[in-house]
């Protein structure tokens, strides 16, 4: 892993509005994911997970941030966003929410407290096309998660399609539910109507 990389940047988006973020001809986030996320957080609320201290990676359109506030009621909701214009939207979001802490940066290069989080929602678009964007492997991400997650904490990330969910060393993976969702326009404009709720716990 290469740590000598920039910690935030300012992009020129092809499209940036309340429903869509497009950069480099790729959809970073689209409101078409909202139905999936709404269903996911309603189900997560019913699981009664401990979610006092939450880390959310990537603000995007703020859809999951709003749902986390509504369904998981965290005492502390730390959101890390790498892109400066999206970060401005995050600052607006955080203004009237006492427990929200907003950080501009690359979460992998940010000094995050050890064994702090009950729940981590990881939904970061990979800016691999930018040479200065730090390259970390999937397993590297989980090495960081294992340090900052509480021993009984959980990690959740979107899973698109009806295919298998990859295993991660040191974590037990649970597919809580497979869902049919309203059509989602993916990064490459393809359409997806299957999704899953995936949780990972330390083992
Ligand atoms: C798919 S969007 C997140 C969508 C969000 N969950 C929502 O509901 O709108 C991905 C976000 O991750 C941010 N991001 C990408 N890499 C990141 C990194 N290394 N650290 C922090 N944020 C990152 C992007 O700028 C973008 O805002």
Automatic annotation (TrEMBL):
GO CC annotation terms, alphabetical: cytoplasm
One GO biological process term: creatine biosynthetic process
Lineage: superkingdom: Bacteria
GO terms assigned for molecular function: guanidinoacetate N-methyltransferase activity
Family annotation (PANTHER family): GUANIDINOACETATE N-METHYLTRANSFERASE (PTHR32379:SF1)
Protein name (Swiss-Prot/TrEMBL): Methyltransferase domain-containing protein
Organism: Acinetobacter bohemicus
């Amino acid at each position: 892993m290469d740590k000598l990389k920039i910690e935030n940047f300012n992009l020129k988006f092809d499209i940036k509005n309340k429903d869509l973020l497009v950069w480099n001809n790729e959809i970073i986030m689209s409101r078409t994911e909202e139905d999936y996320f709404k269903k996911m957080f309603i189900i997560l609320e019913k699981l009664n997970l401990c979610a006092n201290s939450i880390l959310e990676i990537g603000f995007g359109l703020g859809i999951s941030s709003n749902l986390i506030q509504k369904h998981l009621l965290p005492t502390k909701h730390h959101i890390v966003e790498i892109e400066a214009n999206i970060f401005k939207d995050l600052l607006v979001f955080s203004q009237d929410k006492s427990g929200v802490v907003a950080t501009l940066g690359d979460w992998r290069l940010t000094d995050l407290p050890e064994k702090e989080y009950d729940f981590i929602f990881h939904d970061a678009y990979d800016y691999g096309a930018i040479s200065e964007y730090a390259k970390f492997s999937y397993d590297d991400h989980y090495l960081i998660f294992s340090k900052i997650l509480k021993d009984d904490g959980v990690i959740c990330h979107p899973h698109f399609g009806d295919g298998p969910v990859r295993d991660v060393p040191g974590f037990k993976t649970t597919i809580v539910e497979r869902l049919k969702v309203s059509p989602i326009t993916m990064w490459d404009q393809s359409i997806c109507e299957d999704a899953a709720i995936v949780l990972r716990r330390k083992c």
